[in-house]
Design goal:
Elements (H helix, E strand, L loop, with lengths): L4 H14 L8 E7 L5 H15 L4 E7 L2 H9 L7 E2 L3 H9 L3 E2 L18 H8 L13 E13 L24 E4 L2 H12 L1 H6 L4 H6 L3 H14 L3 E5 L3 H7 L4 E5 H13 L5 E3 L5 E11 L5 H11 L2 H11 L2 E2 L4 H11 L12 H4 L4 E3 L2 E3 L14 H4 L2 E3 L7 H13 L2
Parallel strand pairs: 1-2, 1-3, 6-7, 6-8, 10-14
Antiparallel strand pairs: 4-10, 5-8, 5-9, 5-10, 5-11, 12-13
């Protein structure tokens, strides 16, 4: 179908704007999620870059709130962003469409080589997005933040046993008390595990296959679950769910672990207790990562920026600011991360985080930590038993349209 004249003019304007007369050799254009970075870390990059290279650079920072909208700016508008932070399935789509430039690691001196700080767990998960056996995904992206999808809930009204299954959204006790994340990929990827729970238990299908292969039959099954849950849903939210939970207007919220941690902390300041749980059927494990888009004009500064974001101190500062958990946790950074995150007094019940920090004991001063028994926030670092029940989301490809059609039907249904 042909574009309208208006669309063509708008697209031309976008392209022309991206090719303006700015000194791009000394400018770094960054596209990131809103409220997804520590401002001091961001502002510190320009000085750090000058110290490392003797060159000045100015950050031009833009934000987005929907993956697909941001991708359209690059794929259709050819916007010349140097660094972009999309989610895993968008990274997979960009790799398939040849929209990424390899990170130029040869530009970085060994003395400031931070890329290897990314947890091998994250690197392995990212490799599952490779469109071909000859593609090494870690050549194109460095993980930024990660987490799971589950229920944020208020123990005053809901107990954990009632949330053992995603089927909790069908419980009439929660009529008009459930908030649903307005993110059809994430919601589909967890509810398909519930819809086909009998097959999962029988071993005739596994979670990875259920989440990866989107079929009309599976979409219809999830649609029927959501239609049955409509009476319980009081809203479809992108960002206001945390506030509604704190006010007690909603009792549970199907949401991301990072939002859960933020909500838990905000609610605690108001004297409200919230918690987070991943139901027994399992969940998705999601990732956001830094990439260099095809139309970037300052690849050198982009490479340094990505490396800078992999520093352990910057990772900790970003985690503290935004409530999400960093992908940094590789061998050289594990001790620095755990020195701040491991806290027996605050988290007396241990979790097995060996999947993230590795199997070997970790030395912090005079203390030796066993990665299988760490005192960590389980919202940040789920136990291995939870991770083993999680599957990675993938690019939906042609199935994107039937997912979107299903989602629109659900939201319009009465």
């Amino acid at each position: 179908m042909r574009k309208s004249i208006f669309s063509l003019i708008a697209l031309a304007a976008v392209v022309l704007c991206s090719c303006g007369g700015n000194d791009r050799a000394h400018q770094l254009k960054v596209l990131n999620w809103a409220d997804y970075i520590n401002e001091d870390v961001k502002e510190g990059f320009e000085q750090w870059y000058y110290e490392q290279t003797g060159e000045k650079v100015e950050i031009v920072y833009e934000t987005f709130d929907i993956n697909e909208t941001a991708l359209t700016k690059i794929e259709v508008g050819h916007e010349d962003y140097d660094v972009f932070c999309p989610s895993e399935y968008i990274i997979e789509r960009m790799l398939k469409k040849d929209l990424l430039i390899p990170i130029q690691k040869n530009l970085i001196a060994d003395s400031i080589w931070y890329f290897d700080n990314i947890s091998p767990f994250v690197v392995d998960k990212f490799q599952q997005m490779a469109p071909g056996a000859d593609i090494k995904v870690s050549d194109y992206t460095a993980g930024y933040m990660w987490g799971t999808t589950g229920f944020i809930y208020n123990p005053q009204f809901v107990n954990a046993e009632e949330l053992a299954s995603w089927g909790a959204i069908l419980n009439p006790k929660f009529e008009n008390r459930i908030l649903m994340k307005d993110a059809f990929r994430d919601v589909y990827s967890v509810l398909v595990l519930y819809a086909f729970r009998d097959q999962l238990e029988a071993g005739t299908v596994n979670r990875d296959e259920l989440v990866r292969n989107i079929t009309p039959e599976r979409v219809e099954a999830v649609k029927q679950v959501l239609l049955q849950a409509k009476k319980q849903v009081c809203g479809w939210e992108v960002d206001f769910g945390k506030e509604e939970m704190t006010k007690g207007k909603a009792w549970l919220n199907l949401s991301w672990s990072g939002d859960a941690q933020f909500a838990i902390e905000e609610a605690a300041e108001m004297g409200v207790m919230l918690d987070y749980i991943v139901p027994n059927e399992g969940s998705n494990v999601w990732f956001d990562g830094w990439v260099i888009p095809k139309y970037a004009q300052n690849v050198k500064a982009a490479t340094y920026f990505i490396d800078y974001m992999c520093r352990a101190d910057n990772a900790l500062a970003n985690m503290d600011e935004i409530g999400y958990v960093s992908c940094v946790g590789g061998k050289d950074a594990a001790a620095a991360i755990l020195e701040e995150q491991n806290d027996e007094e605050e988290w007396p019940q241990t979790v097995d985080a060996s999947y993230f920090f590795g199997e070997e004991p970790i030395q912090i001063g005079d203390e030796t930590l066993d990665p299988h028994e760490l005192n960590l926030n389980p919202v940040y670092y789920p136990d291995l038993s939870t991770i083993n029940r999680c599957a990675l989301m993938h690019d939906a490809g042609d199935a994107q349209e039937i997912l979107l059609e299903m989602w629109n039907e659900i939201k319009l249904a009465r």
